[in-house]
């Protein structure tokens, strides 16, 4: 069942790629059909999901693959990966709906996105490091083509920068994986086995080096300060759906790696480096927010808020490593907040990027200076953008609050230094209010005249994302009941 | 019965919230009916609030991080909830006559706000409180900037939201302290937080409450908030949201007291605000600005009450002030809509033009002044009685605040009592275009508010006052004694008479709200923006520059390698090839010059030898014989030499 969820989009991609005669309209709707089916399957998984015992997996499947190097096709989910699988299918569905009005090679785009969806789902389902790495790298390749093929501005250059930077990061990750493989006895790439064995416990510097390799690899992908500079150009030049997937799903591959690989496999090194991770988190939060505040381009601004929002995740997972003198309950809240933040950021920032795409569709610009008073000609757009902005700044009633509340209370509960990141909440509020003011209110700007309001495809793609953010914000238990047991497991593994 | 009462509480929250969201979404389609819908919902809200005030339900559902979303109606909530609901209803009735355009959005946001207030008043845990607290802030932002085409209004909303959110960070810190200390999330459990955590919790709550209540040093946002529509000023920026800052401190008075310092800080913050913002109010020439400053000052008494654990006095003052100030804001709003001005000088004579509004505003002003037997006279004195018991300097500061309230209220009264000077019409329509009429929906809500403002002194006086104390469980704080009541009443009345008769000095230095906003800009906003710009440049030039540098270094290195490849590696190959060719040349030359020549030489030699060999063959017999003799002779010589060698060796 899990493999069907993962590979269904790949089959779709193959069909779409092979059917050269397929009319564009059919291709667009086929894509929507594939993503909706996959979404339905994930909803089924969610309904059938029962929290596995600590260290266990739900819907696990294992097939011999490369026995000579201790690697197998091993997939499964737990409370960390299931929400991210669901997020992936939701974001891709929203993109498919948004792209119903796409004019540039829609069939190829659909095929590429279906392929990309499989790679993302594969990363979240993988329980083997080789498999993880394979999907991780293929996602980079697919995203490269998305940006280069459907982007605008200096797309080729930005795509190349994205590719080279994240690919280099993935090489660091691979070095770390090989270190883990070599340290394990018997040698294995199997994730549950490596978690159970924690092979580098008591190895001192070696564990630190392996963790450093893994951390650098994940930090590039997340991205955290100072490895984030590939993100703004990639977002600015990517098509709206590309940005939505990049921010909504691909960034989570990095943060997911912290919780799935770095923390449980290298607990001792993680605890030793926790202070550094917390510091990187705090800096990312403040730095991302401040730099976003200074942007004059909507998409660049949203891109930098991603650095800020992912900073909350890094802060929380770092704080979860501050074991001495802190309460396990607080650390659990922090990890639970980190996972909630991944989901929340995916929904909200996905919606924000799709809405930013509307600016480009209508006026060919993302510059604040070109707009103003859009609430007049486009009230629905204004309403959606304002709601998404308030969701992103962590207003209660939206998922962002549930995430940030947990991140902050848990992290500060574990280490007082985390309180240094609190102004991040305020700065994000300031920057989003400024964005609302400059885009939506006041006098019309040079490109505001005749700005068309949201069309059905735009409404039906961003709307559900925001509704989900509200549902999580008001009734978070259905999500937290899945996440919290897994967070508890992670915290106990880190405490070993 | 318990289930019914719980349902009533849940509906009291969900019903206005849901209808509010629907009204916002409905947008332009609703228009006319939006105000009716809102008034009906608010009326239902008042009924439900009264019901739950009597039945005191507790509702709780699991929420986040092990904390419940918990609502509980205790004594404090039972008193405040119906009061706020009543003010909300009356303000919404007024707004039905006052607000034009985009009514769906306006009334939707107002209902959403009402729901948030209900949650704030009944919140039993910190996360619950924080949710409602920030939603109030967001609706306040959206309502201040309701007329979004006016950039100035939107900016005012931003200032309000950001200033209060800055203070709200305190609640996040307090929540973290509650978690870390293991005291649990219930507001009632916070005083039991162990070690240093109780201080963090108390400090955080205090800062958040001072921000919301527009106390010093946060007061300036309230001044900007006056850009918003008048009903918003009446409900959010006096009776409900700003008052919730004071309310929170009343709710957490035991926590403040548990720290040993937070209560004192709160008391002094309130007292100083009452004095300084009282001076600011005295200095204003704009009616709404005067009322806003007086809101800060009056809430100063509530905050002071929380600091000295006078929960009964603080609650009574909060409720009485809500009625009084909502009334005055509605009057100001009615005049603003009708005459297009908020200038005190331009409003002279307005009260006589619409006598009923004038009478109500007069009652409001006299109440605000603290003149007996109207409400604020008694409630303020109850607070001051507790202050006197705590500290004499505190009491004296509060007393100065009381005198100042009489002064600024009298300034309003002067306008109310005045007759229209000649040419006052020229000063109309400064802020907006007046309609020159005040409709029924606008004036009648002022009547019940004026009645409440007048009679609510009973909340602080026996026998009702004693019942209030019982409901609140406040048995320790002192009641005002009659001498003090009569004394402050007489002083206030005297000040009012004096001011109405003689007027007030201009106090220019206080007119700009003590330069607080300028200071905030200079000390916080501008440095942060400069830092942001600097970091953005740093990010482009240094961080990304480093990446670009690394990339171009890699490219340069690659080029160098390529050059090396061209010159050295390929050069070696080319050299080898050249060498090969040269070797081949040499070989060829050697081949031509050496081998071939050698071959030819050998051939030539052979030929010459052949020629030589042919020479003896002459065909003459005697020559052959001679040749044989020579050969034989040579052979004999050779044999002799050989023998010689063999024997000699």
TrEMBL record, chain B:
Q: What InterPro entries does the entry give?
A: ND/Mrp_TM (IPR001750), NU5C-like (IPR003945)
Keyword match Transmembrane helix: yes
| Family annotation (Pfam families) | Proton_antipo_M (PF00361)
Domain NADH:quinone oxidoreductase/Mrp antiporter transmembrane stretches: 125-404
Taxonomically, which superkingdom?
Answer: Bacteria
One Gene Ontology cellular component term attached to this UniProt record is:
endomembrane system
Q: Which GO terms describe its biological process?
A: ATP synthesis coupled electron transport; electron transport coupled proton transport
UniProt keyword list: Membrane, Transmembrane, Transmembrane helix
Cellular location of this protein?
Endomembrane system; Membrane
Q: Does the keyword Transmembrane helix apply?
A: yes
Q: What Gene3D superfamilies does the database record attribute to this sequence? A: 1.20.5.2700
Sequence intervals crossing the membrane: 6-25, 37-55, 75-94, 106-124, 130-148, 169-188, 200-222, 234-253, 259-283, 290-312, 318-341, 353-372, 392-410, 443-462, 482-501, 624-646
Broad class of where this protein is predominantly found: membrane
Picking any one GO molecular function of the record gives: NADH dehydrogenase activity
Instruction: Please report the record's description of how this protein sits within the membrane.
Output: Multi-pass membrane protein
Q: How is this protein named in the record?
A: NADH:quinone oxidoreductase/Mrp antiporter transmembrane domain-containing protein
Q: Which organism is it from?
A: Nakamurella endophytica
């Amino acid at each position: 069942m899990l493999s069907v969820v993962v590979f269904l989009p790949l089959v779709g991609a193959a069909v779409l790629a092979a059917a050269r005669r397929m009319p564009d309209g059919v291709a667009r709707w086929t894509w929507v059909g594939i993503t909706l089916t996959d979404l339905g399957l994930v909803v089924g998984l969610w309904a059938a999901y029962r929290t596995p015992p600590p260290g266990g997996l739900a819907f696990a499947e294992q097939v011999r693959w490369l026995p000579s190097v201790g690697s197998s096709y091993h997939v499964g989910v737990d409370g960390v990966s299931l929400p991210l699988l669901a997020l992936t299918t939701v974001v891709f569905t929203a993109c498919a709906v948004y792209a119903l009005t796409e004019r540039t090679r829609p069939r190829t785009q659909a095929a590429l996105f279906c392929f990309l969806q499989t790679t993302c789902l594969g990363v979240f389902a993988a329980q083997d490091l080789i498999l993880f790495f394979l999907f991780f790298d293929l996602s980079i390749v697919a995203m490269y083509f998305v940006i280069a093929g459907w982007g605008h501005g200096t797309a080729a250059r930005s795509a190349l920068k994205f590719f080279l930077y994240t690919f280099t990061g993935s090489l660091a990750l691979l070095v770390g994986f090989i270190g883990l493989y070599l340290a394990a006895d018997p040698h294995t790439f199997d994730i549950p086995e490596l978690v159970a064995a924690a092979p580098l416990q008591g190895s001192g510097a070696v564990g630190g080096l392996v963790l450093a390799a893994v951390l650098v690899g994940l930090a590039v992908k997340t991205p955290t300060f100072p490895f984030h500079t590939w993100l703004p150009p990639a977002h600015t030049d990517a098509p709206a759906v590309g940005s939505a997937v990049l921010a909504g799903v691909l960034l989570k591959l990095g943060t997911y790696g912290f919780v799935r690989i770095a923390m449980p496999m290298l607990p001792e090194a993680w605890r030793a480096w926790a202070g550094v991770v917390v510091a990187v988190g705090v800096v990312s939060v403040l730095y991302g927010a401040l730099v976003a505040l200074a942007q004059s381009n909507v998409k660049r601004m949203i891109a930098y808020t991603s650095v800020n929002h992912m900073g909350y995740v890094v802060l929380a997972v770092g704080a979860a490593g501050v074991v001495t003198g802190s309460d396990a309950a607080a650390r659990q809240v922090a990890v639970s907040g980190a996972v909630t933040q991944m989901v929340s950021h995916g929904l909200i920032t996905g919606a924000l990027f799709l809405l930013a795409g509307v600016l480009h569709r209508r006026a060919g610009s993302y510059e604040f200076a070109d707009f103003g008073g859009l609430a007049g000609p486009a009230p629905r757009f204004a309403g959606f953008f304002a709601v998404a902005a308030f969701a992103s700044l962590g207003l209660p009633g939206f998922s962002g609050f549930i995430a940030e509340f947990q991140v902050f209370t848990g992290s500060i509960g574990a280490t007082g230094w985390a309180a240094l990141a609190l102004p991040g909440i305020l700065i994000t509020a300031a920057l989003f209010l400024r964005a609302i003011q400059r885009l939506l209110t006041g006098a019309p700007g040079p490109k505001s005249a005749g700005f068309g309001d949201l069309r059905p495809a735009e409404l039906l793609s961003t709307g559900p994302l925001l509704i989900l953010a509200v549902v999580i914000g008001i009734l978070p238990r259905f999500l937290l009941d899945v996440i919290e047991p897994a967070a508890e497991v992670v915290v106990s593994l880190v405490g070993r | 019965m318990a289930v019914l009462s719980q349902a009533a509480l849940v509906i009291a929250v969900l019903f206005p919230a849901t209808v509010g969201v629907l009204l916002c979404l409905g947008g332009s389609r609703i228009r006319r009916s939006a105000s009716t819908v809102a008034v009906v919902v608010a009326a239902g809200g008042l009924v439900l609030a009264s019901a739950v005030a009597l039945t005191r339900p507790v509702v709780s559902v699991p929420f986040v991080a092990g904390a419940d979303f918990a609502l509980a109606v205790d004594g404090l909530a039972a008193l405040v909830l119906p009061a706020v609901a009543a003010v909300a209803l009356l303000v919404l009735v007024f707004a039905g006559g006052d607000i034009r355009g985009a009514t769906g959005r306006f009334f939707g946001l107002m209902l959403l706000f009402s729901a948030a207030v209900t949650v704030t008043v009944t919140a039993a845990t910190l996360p619950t409180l924080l949710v409602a607290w920030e939603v109030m802030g967001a609706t306040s932002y959206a309502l201040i900037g309701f007329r979004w085409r006016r950039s100035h209004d939107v900016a005012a909303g931003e200032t309000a939201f950001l200033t209060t959110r800055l203070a709200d960070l305190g609640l996040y810190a307090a929540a973290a302290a509650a978690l870390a200390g293991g005291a649990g999330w219930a507001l009632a459990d916070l005083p039991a937080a162990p070690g240093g955590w109780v201080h963090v919790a108390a400090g955080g709550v205090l800062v958040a409450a001072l921000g919301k209540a527009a106390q010093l040093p946060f007061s300036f946002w309230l001044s900007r908030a006056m850009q918003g529509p008048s009903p918003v000023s009446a409900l959010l920026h006096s009776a409900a949201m700003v008052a919730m800052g004071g309310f929170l401190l009343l709710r957490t008075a035991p926590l403040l007291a548990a720290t040993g310092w937070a209560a004192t800080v709160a008391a002094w913050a309130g007292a100083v605000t009452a004095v300084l913002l009282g001076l600011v109010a005295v200095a204003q020439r704009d009616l709404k600005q005067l009322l806003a400053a007086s809101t800060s000052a009056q809430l100063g008494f509530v905050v002071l009450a929380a600091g000295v654990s006078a929960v009964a006095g603080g609650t009574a003052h909060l409720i009485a002030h809500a009625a009084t100030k909502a009334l005055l804001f509605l009057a100001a709003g009615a005049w603003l809509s009708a005459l297009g001005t908020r200038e005190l000088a331009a409003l002279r004579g307005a009260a006589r033009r619409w006598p009923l509004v004038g009478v109500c505003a007069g009652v409001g002003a006299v109440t605000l002044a603290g003149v007996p037997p109207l409400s604020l006279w008694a409630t303020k004195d109850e607070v001051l009685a507790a202050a006197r018991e705590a500290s004499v300097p505190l009491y004296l500061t509060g007393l100065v605040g009381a005198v100042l309230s009489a002064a600024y209220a009298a300034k309003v009264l002067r306008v109310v009592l005045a007759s229209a000077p000649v040419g006052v019409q020229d000063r109309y329509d400064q802020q907006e275009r007046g309609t020159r009429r005040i409709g029924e929906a606008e004036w009648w809500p002022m009547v019940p508010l004026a009645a409440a403002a007048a009679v609510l002194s009973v909340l602080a006086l026996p026998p009702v006052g004693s019942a209030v104390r019982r409901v609140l469980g406040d048995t320790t704080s002192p009641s005002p004694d009659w001498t003090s009541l009569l004394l402050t009443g007489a002083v206030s009345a005297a000040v009012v008479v004096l001011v109405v008769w003689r007027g007030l000095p201009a106090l220019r230095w206080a007119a700009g709200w003590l330069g607080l906003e300028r200071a905030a800009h200079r000390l916080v906003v501008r440095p942060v923006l400069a830092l942001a710009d600097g970091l953005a440049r740093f990010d482009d030039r240094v961080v990304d520059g480093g990446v670009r540098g690394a990339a171009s270094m890699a490219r340069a290195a690659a080029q160098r390698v390529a050059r090396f490849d061209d010159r050295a590696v390929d050069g070696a190959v080319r050299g080898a090839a050249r060498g090969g060719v040269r070797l081949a040349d040499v070989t060829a030359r050697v081949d031509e010059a050496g081998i071939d020549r050698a071959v030819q030489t050998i051939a030539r030699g052979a030929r010459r030898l052949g020629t030589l060999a042919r020479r003896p063959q002459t065909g003459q017999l005697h020559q052959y014989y001679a040749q044989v003799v020579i050969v034989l002779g040579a052979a004999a010589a050779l044999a002799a030499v050989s023998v010689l060698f063999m024997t000699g060796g």
